Structures are given as structure tokens and as C-alpha cells.
């Protein structure tokens, strides 16, 4: 089968690899119908050191089950399923608490040669990991279902972590797919005013469609002043940090209202959490982290299936698996927000 392998920064190849197959009795084998490239894939794309064996890529997918191991009971061959960006057993104490990202048997796609930018994938702990769609959706709906693998559920985690409540004011740092989905999630949770910080008109247009009321195109200090102006001088009670750099975190901490909350979901690109003073002196709570997507999929799935939210709008291009290297380049150069990959 074909799969995507990254060998070094800027070096992504689609190669013929050994076919995915069942290994443990708790596995499922899934034929991937929809995958995509993630903003977090761009970090290694910019910085990964050269390796001989490379690393399988892709952690978001929707597909159809081809086969299951003997111990799998909740999904079966032929089922259309969504996978979260980590696998989890669904039965340990952390899974039962809804923190599937800390599962005692969990893991990340890409390890064990099972990336999702591929034709097929072996899914560990199929009962705990996969969510059965239970419908036969059209293409547009499938794009939205794919966002439940990561970006929409992660944007939702940012909004939940930032304690977005009905009627509140929210600021969103980041205009990538997660930031845009953060806008949609904040709107869904009843935010009255949603300010997005972003400069790219194609992105902010989608943000407005998703419910953003204000767009702040300035950067750095000017952006902070602008958000303060828009919020009566104090800042926003809920801030979604959807980038993960030192600068974006500084902006998020600074535009939070005293006593407010930053929900952070951007994968940190700095070893230290900066700006301790800014958060300490104004009692800013910092919450969030890696999103326990598996806990959110069942909550969000019905609304996606009914078409009440359309997070699939973040996909502004569709490519074949053979075009994945070009997809990375285009996304990295900001020519596309997020490419959908059809194997
Ligand atoms: Zn678990």
C-alpha cells in the first residue's frame, strides 16, 4: 500500500510500504477514505532532523473497517468510522474520566508504522478508539466529520478550557484550522462577541462565517491594544490560544481580562511556559492542553450529522495521496488553510 513518510524537514515522500494488517485481537484494519495534513505536521516539516528510516505521517482520518480482531465487539467490517488523533483503550481510569489522551495504553499515530496519510491503517484498541458514524453521509458532510478527528474537537477543547459561557466575549489567537474551529466552538457554546486575531482574508472570511464578530489584523503590541479597545479596555474573559509559539502565548495572556482564562491548545514550540508575570499579576488562569478528542466526538457528532455546524469549511483544497508532498509545501507557504487528502 501507499503511505506518507517524512525523512527530514521539507522531505515528504509517498512510498510503497508493507500493507497494514491486524496484529492484536483488539485491532481493526481501516481503509482510509478521508485524511488530511495538520498544522502540527508542519512543525516537523520545518525542523525535523534527517533520519534514515523516516517517520509515518498523518493522524486524522475517516474510513471504512475492512476487518477486526477476535476481541473487537463494538465495530465491525463495513462500518464507517472516525478516529481521534490518538488511540486509547476506552477502559482505563483516565479513559473513564474522559481524559483519553492520558490513556494507560494510548499512543500516537505515526508510531508503530501506522500513519493516516496512507491507504489503510491498523487501529489499536478499536473498541476504545473508533467512533461509528452510523449514517451514510455525502461528501460535504464527510469533510466535517473528518474535523472531529482533531481540529473541530481541539477548537472545542480550547473553548471549553477557556470557560466560554453564553453571552461572554471571546478572543481567538490563531487563524489556522484550529483557530477557526475555536471560533465555531465558541459560537456554539453561546459566546456573544468573538474576536479573531488574523491577517489572512481567506481565513478571516471563514471566521466570520463561523461566528466571529470582529477581526483584528494587527500583530503584537498593536493587536493587544486593538483587543483592549474592543473590550472596553480590560481584555477578553476567555481567550483561545491556538498556535503554540511564545509570541502567540504572550498575546493570549496579555489580552485576557484580569481574572480571565486562557484555553491553550497550540502544541507548545518553546520548552518553557513564558510570561509567568503577566498571568500571575492579573490572576489569569491557563488551562487546556492536548485535546481529549475521543471524549468530545460523541457529543459533537450529532450536530455535524444534522448540518447544524459545518467545520469542514476549513478544508479549502483536496488532493490525492500522491500529491501529499505538494500539499505540505502549499500549507507551509500558507497557500492553503488545510488540504483534504483522498487516498
Ligand atoms: Zn485508557
Number of strands: 18
Low-confidence stretches: none
Secondary-structure element pattern, one letter each? EEEHEEEEHEEHEHHEHEHEHEHEHEHEHE
How many structural domains can be distinguished in the coordinates?
Answer: 2
Assign the CATH class of the largest domain. Alpha Beta
Class per helix and strand makeup: alpha/beta
Helical amount among residues, as a percent range?
A: 25-40%
Distance between the termini: 10 Å
What amount of the residues lies in strands? 25-35%
Number of helices: 12
**Overall mean confidence score, pLDDT:** 95
CATH superfamily of the largest domain: Medium-chain alcohol dehydrogenases, catalytic domain
C-alpha Rg (nearest Å): 20 Å
Instruction: Spell out which ligands are present.
Output: zinc ion
CATH topology of the largest domain: Quinone Oxidoreductase, Chain A, domain 1
Architecture of the largest domain in CATH? Alpha-Beta Complex
Largest sheet: 7 strands, mixed
Cα shape: globular
Amino acid at each position: 500500500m501507499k503511505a506518507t513518510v517524512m525523512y527530514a524537514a521539507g522531505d515528504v515522500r509517498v512510498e510503497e510500504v508493507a500493507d497494514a494488517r491486524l496484529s492484536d485481537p483488539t485491532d481493526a484494519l481501516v481503509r482510509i477514505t478521508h485524511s488530511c495534513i495538520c498544522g502540527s505536521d508542519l512543525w516537523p516539516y520545518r525542523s525535523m532532523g534527517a533520519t534514515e528510516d523516516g517517520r509515518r505521517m498523518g493522524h486524522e482520518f475517516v474510513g471504512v473497517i475492512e476487518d477486526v480482531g477476535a476481541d473487537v465487539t463494538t465495530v465491525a467490517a463495513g462500518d464507517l468510522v472516525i478516529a481521534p488523533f490518538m488511540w486509547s483503550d476506552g477502559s482505563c481510569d483516565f479513559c473513564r474520566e474522559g481524559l483519553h489522551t492520558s490513556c494507560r495504553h494510548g499512543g500516537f499515530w505515526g508510531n508503530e508504522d501506522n500513519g493516516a496519510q496512507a491507504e489503510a491503517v491498523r487501529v489499536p484498541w478499536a473498541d476504545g478508539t473508533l467512533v461509528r458514524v452510523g449514517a451514510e453521509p455525502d461528501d460535504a458532510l464527510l469533510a466535517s466529520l473528518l474535523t472531529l478527528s482533531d481540529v473541530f474537537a481541539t477548537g472545542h477543547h480550547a473553548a471549553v478550557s477557556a470557560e466560554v459561557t453564553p453571552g461572554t466575549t471571546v478572543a481567538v489567537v490563531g487563524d489556522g484550522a484550529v483557530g477557526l474551529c475555536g471560533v465555531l466552538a465558541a459560537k456554539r457554546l453561546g459566546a456573544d462577541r468573538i474576536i479573531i486575531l488574523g491577517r489572512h482574508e481567506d481565513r478571516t472570511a471563514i471566521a466570520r462565517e463561523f461566528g466571529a464578530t470582529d477581526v483584528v489584523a494587527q500583530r503584537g503590541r498593536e493587536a493587544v491594544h486593538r483587543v483592549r479597545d474592543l473590550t472596553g479596555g480590560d481584555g477578553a474573559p476567555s481567550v483561545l490560544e491556538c498556535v503554540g509559539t511564545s509570541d502567540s502565548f504572550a498575546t493570549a495572556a496579555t489580552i485576557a481580562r484580569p481574572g480571565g482564562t486562557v484555553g491553550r491548545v497550540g502544541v507548545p514550540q518553546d520548552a518553557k511556559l513564558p510570561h509567568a508575570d503577566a498571568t500571575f499579576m492579573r490572576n489569569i488562569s491557563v488551562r487546556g492542553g492536548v485535546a481529549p478528542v475521543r471524549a468530545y466526538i460523541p457529543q459533537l457528532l450529532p450536530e455535524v450529522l444534522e448540518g447544524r455546524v459545518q467545520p469542514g469549511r476549513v478544508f479549502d483544497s483536496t488532493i490525492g495521496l500522491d500529491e501529499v508532498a505538494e500539499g505540505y509545501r502549499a500549507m507551509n507557504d500558507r497557500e492553503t488553510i488545510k488540504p483534504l487528502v483522498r487516498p
